[in-house]
Design brief:
Blueprint: H1 33-39, H2 48-69, H3 73-90, H4 98-109, H5 121-128, H6 132-144, E1 148-151, E2 155-158, H7 162-187, H8 189-195
Antiparallel strand pairs: 1-2
Length: about 200
């Protein structure tokens, strides 16, 4: 999940401070499973079952975005940039539980004061490498459903409808992610993944 687990540093008026190196896959960053196994003196790990579980997780996510949220996947990824930006700001005051985070997200959606650097069409376009007009059009579409709020003065932020998405969609995604990790653990894929950087 591109945005999940990735902190989005302070976003300026035009461009983000996020390093482009973090979003670019260079040849030196590609993991060779053969090399990793050879270096550890192991046979190459079984990969197909773990990949199948991952693909099924992604397909389920895609289907739920279309059917439950009733938005296209590009709009969903744009929403995740806004969520990431909000989480970055919220986490400055310390880690939160699921319920505490719901409260913070609600405050953002209700326009209550939570210190939030301005997020613009340009900064979202820069992170996702999308045309600015595409981002503007998708954000306006999400704004019609109150999922996002946006204007030139206050920037783009989560809208009141995100509370429902958080409570239902995020909770379901978390459960499915937990199920994926359990399957990886059972097949041995998780252990190999955790050892990849050793």
């Amino acid at each position: 999940m591109p945005i999940l687990g990735c902190s989005l540093p302070g976003i300026g008026r035009i461009k983000t401070i996020m390093s482009t190196e973090k979003t670019t896959l260079g040849i030196h960053k590609v993991i060779s499973f053969e090399e990793a196994a050879k270096n550890k003196g192991q046979k190459q790990p079984i990969f197909s079952q773990g990949l199948y579980n991952w693909v099924m997780f992604i397909l389920s996510l895609y289907t739920r975005v279309r059917e439950n949220l009733k938005i296209d996947f590009e709009s969903f990824v744009i929403l995740q940039v806004v969520v990431s930006h909000s989480l970055y700001q919220i986490n400055k005051t310390g880690s939160k539980t699921f319920s505490e985070l719901e409260d913070q997200m609600t405050k953002i959606g209700e326009n209550k004061k939570i210190r939030n650097n301005k997020l613009t069409f340009a900064s979202i376009a820069d992170v996702l490498r999308l045309p600015r007009e595409t981002v503007r059009r998708k954000v306006l579409g999400l704004s019609k459903n109150n999922i996002l709020l946006g204007n030139t003065k206050k920037g783009i932020k989560l809208g009141p409808a995100y509370k429902t998405i958080y409570k239902e969609f995020v909770a379901q995604t978390t459960l499915e992610l937990g199920s994926l990790i359990k399957k990886w653990k059972k097949s041995g894929a998780l252990e190999h993944l955790l050892e990849m950087d050793k």
